[in-house]
């Protein structure tokens, strides 16, 4: 089994729609740290699980310095963002999204 791990830092803003009062309902930003894990038993025709550049394009180039509410079709919680990223990348099996030093979400495919 081969595992590729790509860690990226992005700056992005969001506001959450919640069923309870919260300061997170106001537009605010984070310096997010996103770690993507991809796995494959066999390498592709290029000898890769996935190209690191393809991961970067799927995440950093689409999300960095953006208002996530403007570009994502869901409530941009860290949990939803992690699941969405995992679905964007070939052979992705796990995504960690850290929105601050003490707050990290991990999404793993079944």
Automatic annotation (TrEMBL):
The record's listing under InterPro entries reads: 6-PTP_synth/QueD, 6-PTP_synth/QueD_sf
Q: Where is the active site?
A: 24, 65, 99
UniProt-annotated binding residues for Zn(2+): 14, 28, 30
* Cofactor binding description: Binds 1 zinc ion per subunit.
The protein's required cofactor(s) are namely: Zn(2+)
Q: List UniProt keywords, sorted A-Z.
A: Lyase, Metal-binding, Queuosine biosynthesis, Zinc
What pathway is it annotated to?
Answer: Purine metabolism; 7-cyano-7-deazaguanine biosynthesis
Is Zinc among the key words of this record? yes
Q: Which Gene3D superfamilies does the UniProt record give?
A: 6-pyruvoyl tetrahydropterin synthase/QueD
Gene Ontology biological process terms in this record: tRNA queuosine(34) biosynthetic process
What is the reaction catalyzed? 7,8-dihydroneopterin 3'-triphosphate + H2O = 6-carboxy-5,6,7,8-tetrahydropterin + triphosphate + acetaldehyde + 2 H(+)
EC number(s)?
Answer: 4.-.-.-
GO terms of molecular function? 6-carboxytetrahydropterin synthase activity; metal ion binding
Which Pfam family is an annotated match for this chain, by its short name?
Answer: PTPS
What family does this belong to? Belongs to the PTPS family. QueD subfamily.
Name under which the protein is recorded: 6-carboxy-5,6,7,8-tetrahydropterin synthase
């Amino acid at each position: 089994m081969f595992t590729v791990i790509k860690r990226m830092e992005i700056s992005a803003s969001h506001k959450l729609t919640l069923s309870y009062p919260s300061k997170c309902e106001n537009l605010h930003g984070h310096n997010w740290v996103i770690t993507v894990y991809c796995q494959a038993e066999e390498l592709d025709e290029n000898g890769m699980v996935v190209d690191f550049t393809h991961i970067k394009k799927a995440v950093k180039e689409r999300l960095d310095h953006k208002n996530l509410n403007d570009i994502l079709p869901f409530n941009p919680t860290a949990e939803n963002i992690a699941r969405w990223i995992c679905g964007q990348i070939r052979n992705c099996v796990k995504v960690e999204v850290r929105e601050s030093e003490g707050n990290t979400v991990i999404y793993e495919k079944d």
